[in-house]
């Protein structure tokens, strides 16, 4: 379905699981888990079907960020972290969601960090998953080179640097071909997953060549008021563990929880779904 969040702006939304569960003589309300997908330029499909594992403890709301996927196209002037962060509040208002649990994966974690800064009283809880607070180019280069086979290591370094400094359709194609399989620590077994993803390359290139270059999210994290779980794969090449540790250190100590996953790359549920969903389940139910 498409939900209008302000006049003329509709987001694609999909909801899994009931919000109210019969219990005795009444109805028990489950928490709402709002999923902010990665990218930018991608859609929510990477969360499916894995996050169905949490449908028994939360009502899950998937959506495509403004301009992305099946949401309405929007002008480039609206492709900003401030707009995407404010859309979390707009969508919750439209759906009547109070105190959501907001999970931001990768780029979705950028949005979630800006949302924490701009709307610290809004969330019930926040999960920052496999994300960063800045570009951190040299860390990315080292991370991908460490995971690449020795014969192609230098070529991988060059392609990572080329894309993140001069994003074009050609530099992205070369980067994605060289690095896509290095994001995770274990081979992914669903060959059709990439075909299901809707990519808006213009949004990706616009953000990487623009706002991403000067992105500085750490200062705003001090405004957090709710529990925040930082999840990181220790072998993540694109959002390295050093970034996650700096995010954790910037959060108020009373709010922060850190979960490190050895042997995992980007999106820890892809490499170790049992451990990842067990940790998410505990955080949701706390």
TrEMBL record:
Pfam families: Abhydrolase_1. Residues 31-267 form the AB hydrolase-1 domain. One of its GO terms (molecular function) is hydrolase activity. Keywords: Hydrolase. InterPro entries: AB_hydrolase_1 (IPR000073), AB_hydrolase_fold (IPR029058), AB_hydrolase_sf (IPR050266), Peptidase_S33 (IPR002410). Belongs to the peptidase S33 family. This is Alpha/beta hydrolase. It comes from Roseateles subflavus.
């Amino acid at each position: 379905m498409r939900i209008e969040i302000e006049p003329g702006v509709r987001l694609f939304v999909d909801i899994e699981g009931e919000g109210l569960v019969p219990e005795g003589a009444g109805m028990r309300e489950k928490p709402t888990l709002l999923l902010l997908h990665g990218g930018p330029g991608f859609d929510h499909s990477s969360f499916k079907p894995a996050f169905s594992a949490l449908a028994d403890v939360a009502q899950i709301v998937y959506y495509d960020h403004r301009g992305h996927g099946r949401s309405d196209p929007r002008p480039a002037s609206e492709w900003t972290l401030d707009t995407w962060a404010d859309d979390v509040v707009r969508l919750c208002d439209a759906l009547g969601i109070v105190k959501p649990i907001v999970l931001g994966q990768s780029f979705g974690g950028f949005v979630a960090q800006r949302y924490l800064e701009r709307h610290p009283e809004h969330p019930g809880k926040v999960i920052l998953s496999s994300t960063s607070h800045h570009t951190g180019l040299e860390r990315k280069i080292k991370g991908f080179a460490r995971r690449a086979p020795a014969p192609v290591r230098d070529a991988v370094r060059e392609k990572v640097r080329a894309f993140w400094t001069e994003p074009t359709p050609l530099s992205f194609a070369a980067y994605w071909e060289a690095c896509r399989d290095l994001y995770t620590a274990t081979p992914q077994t669903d060959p059709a997953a990439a075909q299901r993803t809707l990519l808006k390359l213009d949004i990706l290139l616009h953000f990487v060549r623009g706002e991403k270059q000067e992105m500085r999210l750490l200062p705003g994290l001090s405004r957090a008021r709710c529990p925040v779980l930082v999840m990181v794969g220790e072998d993540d090449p694109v959002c390295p563990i050093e970034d996650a540790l700096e995010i954790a250190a910037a959060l108020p100590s009373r709010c922060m929880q850190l979960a490190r996953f050895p042997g995992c790359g980007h999106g820890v549920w892809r490499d170790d779904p049992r451990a990842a969903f067990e940790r998410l389940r505990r955080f949701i139910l706390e």
